[in-house]
Amino acid sequence: MAVDAVTVTILGATGSIGTSALDVMARHPGRFRVRALTGHRNIGLLAQQCRRFRPELAVVADAQAASALREQLGAACGDIQILYGEDGLEYAAGSGADITVAAIVGAAGLRPALRAVADGGRILLANKESLVMAGALFMDAVARSGATLLPLDSEHNAVFQCLPGNFSRARPVDSGVTRVLLTASGGPFRATPRSELEQVTPEQACAHPNWSMGRKISVDSATLMNKGLEVIEASWLFGIDADHLDVVVHPQSIVHSLVEYVDGTMLAQMSNPDMRTPIAHALGWPERLEAGVTPLDLVGLGRLDFGAPDHDRFPCLGLAYQALRAGGSAPAVLNAANEEAVSAFLDQCLPFTGIATVIETALECAETVDLTGIDALLAVDGAARRVARDAIARAGAAQ
Ligand code: NAD
Ligand code: MG
């Protein structure tokens, strides 16, 4: 292996994004060396990854998971250090890798991502929830440490690719950018009548037509909350306000997003819907890396369709815009209530249409305040989760 290989830590290595990142890295032997992998409770897969990629460090959820991993690895454990819990995650995030892939799902990803940012290396951000919860704190931390933040979310990676070299998030208009358009597939219920949405099951919601993803983001895609979270994410990443951020439904998921310029130009990034494209882009940037992704066949595709989102059937998108416009703690409330509601829906304790109702209730109950630091944020997050759980319990009792 080359001495000057780029060191990579993957937070959330056993997830959909984590495994795609390892797939891309494995296509470039000698170029990358794995520093740390974290796998929470997916010990079987983490053990396989440890055998194959030989990280210096592996992190799991707790002591029990750590001994299970040690047992599964047996002699193959060699000199792999095994840590657990939040301290283990922070240690991995701060282990000085050249690149850290932040691919833990949900609020659990915030602290490790912030730890990696503080380290000042290159952060490949998939965990959009951390920007939604803590956008100002997160972007301040990036500015302070001088970290390079590259988006892995396909839409934001597309926007990044369509922005000019001289782009500054402090003054987007200076580079002629007038609008950012995020595309949305519309999810598995794009054409489902409103009257049938009440009855849809977690399995139906997780069967995305174009993308294979973790369960939480799959449900977010089905409610369009994923696009709402992405609007907030884009606003922080690119310094664009809600009035200059639009969502376009594009069922084929070929155009991943677009940037509009003052001269009438609109630039789009297109590729097959495969997360290995944005992952390879960010791992190699500014170089281009082979990603194992089939090139587009435009003639085979024949057509690309675009339409407006249906806010009546999918109120979560509007709630996200509302939270972005309210600012302060509102997006953190939106995110916390959404996480609770999605988890209740996956546990079959809340109907699909109840997700938006729970979030709306949480937003109505919470006063919008400025977030002065991580402790203030965690207090807001905790309070919103309590309100959401109460609303979920009431919805359950009424069924
Ligand atoms: P996933 O459920 O497949 O994987 C999540 C990873 O996080 C796993 O490695 C899991 O072990 C780990 N994890 C879960 N709970 C944890 C906890 N409490 N503490 C520590 N680790 C924990 O999810 P995913 O689809 O890979 O998504 C990961 C993130 O990337 C999400 O924020 C999602 O919104 C974002 N994202 C995913 C995709 C995609 O195509 N999957 C696309 C864009 C953005
Ligand atoms: Mg996305």
Automatic annotation (TrEMBL):
Residues 270-386 form the DXP reductoisomerase C-terminal domain. Residues 149-238 form the 1-deoxy-D-xylulose 5-phosphate reductoisomerase C-terminal domain. Its cofactor is Mg(2+); Mn(2+). Keywords: Isomerase, Isoprene biosynthesis, Magnesium, Manganese, Metal-binding, NADP, Oxidoreductase. The keyword Nucleotidyltransferase does not apply. 1-deoxy-D-xylulose 5-phosphate binds at residues 128, 154-155, 185, 208, 221, 226-227, 230. One of its GO terms (biological process) is isopentenyl diphosphate biosynthetic process, methylerythritol 4-phosphate pathway involved in terpenoid biosynthetic process. Mn(2+) binds at residues 153, 155, 230. Its EC number is 1.1.1.267. PANTHER family: 1-DEOXY-D-XYLULOSE 5-PHOSPHATE REDUCTOISOMERASE (PTHR30525), 1-DEOXY-D-XYLULOSE 5-PHOSPHATE REDUCTOISOMERASE, CHLOROPLASTIC (PTHR30525:SF0). This is 1-deoxy-D-xylulose 5-phosphate reductoisomerase. The lineage of its organism: Bacteria, Pseudomonadati, Pseudomonadota, Gammaproteobacteria, Chromatiales.
